[in-house]
Write a structure and sequence with these properties.
Oligomer: heterodimer
Strand content of chain B: 15-25%
Number of domains of chain B: 1
CATH architecture of chain B: 2-Layer Sandwich
Largest interface: A-B, 68 and 66 residues
Order of helices and strands of chain B: EHEEHEEHEEHHEHEEHH
Largest sheet of chain B: 4 strands, mixed
Number of strands of chain B: 10
Strand content of chain A: 15-25%
Helix content of chain A: 25-40%
Radius of gyration of chain A: 29 Å
Shape of chain B: globular
Distance between the termini of chain A: 96 Å
Radius of gyration of chain B: 18 Å
CATH topology of chain B: Alpha-Beta Plaits
Number of strands of chain A: 20
Structural class of chain A: alpha/beta
Shape of chain A: extended
Largest sheet of chain A: 8 strands, mixed
Chain lengths: ~475, ~250
């Protein structure tokens, strides 16, 4: 039979129609989608055997233990060794490749050289005086800084105090011990009355309080609802800046209820409670709770003499679960804020936050792994995350570097011509501390001194948020100001 | 060869323990090779397989209360909406694990599943993943890089499940050790607000927590049987469970 034109058209039409009843179009669609989803420019993970190594996080003084997932010589994942890490910590291994990574010496915002920086620093040392500022005392590097300050005429060694240490200064003054030796024994605390302290937002090391809470009860007294206030067992609304007033009101209530003995504040209970914006009954109830739930401690965000005195009345100073003293703490040192205002130069270690610099220093040599801050003076590229040995000042343990730093990077120790001493275990133990309140301290006006606010905010901008945490910032979890909490 | 008993992996999130620190979100992004957010990304167009929402009771001053609600794929068990609507069979409910899996290689990017999902737990990948030069060396080798044009969601860190199964197989065991399989968000939670495990296992913590009188599920009235549970002792928080997102936003 001779095929007609009609037969050819029918066959063609039938073939086209029937192909939709076969897997062919779906397979083509499938393949096309796979093909278009695997372009050569899509990044691929590093190939190589995976192994886990142990290290320590250097982002903040907490020095959390790390388990580092390594592949092909790179860190490809992090997890906590003895518990969880903070939000910043989980993306910290990405930070070494941040576009703002500093690998070239910069002087007043312009590229420079190590030779020029060294010459400028030697000239400054010769003209003196210079200060070496250590953001995390008690490390092996701290010993090198101290030795440099001792052997260089006119050189000074100074440290940066954490907000927690700052808050303990009034207690140190009453107890007559160096603030470096004091600390909160929160692991044994039953109840914390927090006076606007950001306990669950990074205070005392990002994860320490989170691990202890909610077994450790928190009562948050604050003017503006914070994350800690959200999670606290109880929240007390106070007027802004009235923490010291509440502390004085509580002291009166403790003494009135015969729950403590000691001197009274000059301001009356009714006056203090009114200034704090808290009802008298609530003050008395709080005082009874503090006394009944011992060991309890009162923590303030700022150094408050009234809060220190309240802690002494409460019996929290020198008691288990309160404010305790320990041996094995770093040797006392001058705070950066106590440095003279006529410094020729200041050398800032990479652990010093960007927003901190000695007032009045003519020239600043700042070590940093990432660009940031005002870039005035010298910016000296330092090793980044896991690129240098990390010492834990509390234990003396040292985690060796796991990653190779990029070319052009130098440690502060190498810049000073020193060598990192061998790690030395620290024998740290709680020692007896007796403290008696002879007279109620004069209550300083409770204004915003700005220092604690800057410190509370320091760790986030100081280490330059890795890109992964951009998600965290964009999630609107953090308060306005890029995570900077106003104290 | 022995095979594992069918499991129903699920999660219980104690909202009274969540401090909103965001570590779960960062850990999730790092584990699953989620690229940095595009400059034009919004909360809906960015990729956040785990997203912590901050919700208030609408009060002011001393009456204001807030809660942090980590929202992820609920791994619905009954007539899973995203599975039902997918024309490409790119979504499946794994009967062996109870995990709702997304297969990006099959996904055409039609986004029907996003429309069907009542929890807004699915995200379309609008942009090619890009990292700053060199940062691709930090990518997790256990997870493929997500490409543009597909829908993303939480898969309970499926790569970790594979690793646990490989480990069990290498040891000649049929069952994985529950301690070997924990999603990144669970591991990252400092307050241990997230409990994860097999809901079929009567001895598991997750099963006990899911049956606690304080536990509830979001939009349970839809009948999709989500396997992510929440817990809270606060009445107003439990009251949020059946409210739509718009209602919650309005407070």
């Amino acid at each position: 039979m001779k095929p007609t034109r009609r037969d050819v058209l029918a066959l063609g039409g039938g073939a086209v129609a029937s192909v939709f009843f076969t897997p062919i179009p779906w397979k083509l669609l499938d393949d096309a989608s796979i093909w278009t989803q695997n372009w050569s420019w899509i990044p691929q993970p590093v190939k190589g055997p995976v192994e886990w190594k142990e290290s320590a996080c250097a982002l903040c003084p907490a020095s959390c233990g790390l388990r580092v997932k390594m592949a092909g010589g790179y860190a490809v994942g992090l997890s906590g060794k003895d518990g969880a890490l903070c939000a910043l910590g989980y993306g910290a291994h990405q930070m070494n490749w941040h576009p703002q990574r500093l690998t070239v010496v910069r002087h007043n915002g312009q590229p420079s050289t190590w030779a020029a920086a060294e010459a400028a620093f030697q000239k400054a040392c010769a003209e003196g005086p210079v200060a070496i500022v250590d953001g995390r005392p008690g490390r092996g590097a701290s010993q090198v800084y101290r030795q440099f300050a001792e052997k260089t005429p006119g050189a000074l060694y100074a440290v940066i105090r954490t907000p927690e240490e700052e808050a303990l200064r009034p207690v140190a003054a009453i107890a007559g011990v160096p603030v470096e030796r004091l600390g909160y024994d929160l692991e044994n605390t039953k109840l914390v009355l927090s006076l606007s302290a950001p306990l669950l937002e990074g205070w005392g090391g990002p994860q320490r309080v989170q691990r202890l809470w909610p077994a450790m009860q928190i009562i948050q007294a604050e003017a503006e609802l914070s994350r800690t206030g959200t999670c606290a067992a109880r929240r007390v609304q106070i007027k802004p800046g009235s923490e010291a007033m509440l502390a004085m009101a509580l002291a009166h209530a403790l003494l009135d209820e015969k729950l403590a003995t000691g001197p009274r504040p000059a301001m009356s209970l009714a006056e203090a409670a009114a200034l704090a914006g808290v009802e008298l009954d609530e003050v008395k109830g709080l005082a009874r709770t503090l006394a009944a739930q011992r060991p309890s401690v009162v923590i303030s965000a700022r150094p408050e003499p009234a809060v220190a005195a309240l802690n002494v009345l409460l019996g929290a100073v020198g008691a288990e679960g309160g404010i305790v003293a320990r041996n094995g703490a770093p040797a006392p040192a001058k705070s950066m804020d106590e440095l003279p205002g006529t410094l020729r130069a200041a050398l800032l270690d990479s652990t010093v936050p960007w927003d901190r610099r000695p007032a009045g220093a003519q020239e600043v040599f700042r070590f940093a792994a990432w660009r940031g801050g005002d870039e005035q003076g010298w910016m000296l590229p330092a090793p980044g995350f896991l690129e240098e040995a990390t010492d834990n000042p509390a234990t003396g343990a040292r985690a060796e570097a796991l990653l190779k730093p990029p070319a052009g990077v130098k440690t502060t120790v190498a810049f000073l011509g020193g060598e990192l001493p061998a790690a030395q275990p620290v024998e740290s133990a709680i020692v007896p501390l007796t403290c008696k309140l002879a007279a109620w301290p004069s209550a300083a006006p409770n204004g915003q001194d700005g220092r604690t606010a800057a410190w509370t905010a320091a760790w986030t901008p100081a280490v330059l948020a890795p890109l992964a945490t951009k998600l965290h910032q964009e999630s609107k979890l953090m308060p306005a100001g890029g995570g900077r909490r106003q104290a | 060869m022995k095979t594992q008993k069918p499991r129903r992996y699920g999660m219980v999130i104690d909202l009274d323990r969540c401090t909103g620190c965001g570590a779960c979100m960062t850990a999730c992004a790092a584990e699953n090779n989620v690229a940095p957010g595009h400059a034009k990304a919004t909360p809906r167009t960015g990729l956040t397989p785990m997203l912590v929402q901050r919700v208030s009771n609408g009060g002011a001053g001393a009456d204001r209360r807030e809660v942090f609600i980590p929202v992820t794929c609920m791994h619905c068990e009954h007539e899973t909406p995203c599975v039902t609507v997918c024309p490409q069979q790119a979504v499946e409910l794994d009967k062996a694990t109870g995990i709702v899996n997304q297969m990006p290689q099959r996904c055409l990017g039609c986004r029907y599943c996003m429309t069907a999902c009542a929890y807004h737990a699915r995200y379309f990948n609008w942009w090619d993943p890009e990292w700053p030069v060199g940062m691709e060396r930090t990518l997790n080798p256990g997870v493929a890089v997500r490409m543009r044009g597909v829908v993303e969601k939480c898969n309970f860190c499926h790569g970790r499940l594979h690793e646990a199964e490989d480990k069990a197989a290498a040891a000649g065991k049929a069952e994985i050790d529950p301690a070997d399989y924990r999603p990144a968000c669970v591991e990252a939670c400092a307050t241990q607000a997230i409990v994860f495990g097999d809901l079929n296992d009567p001895a598991s913590d997750v099963r006990k927590a899911s049956r606690h009188e304080d536990s509830f599920r979001l939009l349970a009235r839809l009948g999709t049987e989500p396997k992510v549970y929440y817990r809270s002792k606060q009445e107003w928080v439990r009251g949020l469970a059946e409210r739509g997102q718009q209602e919650v936003r309005r407070g």
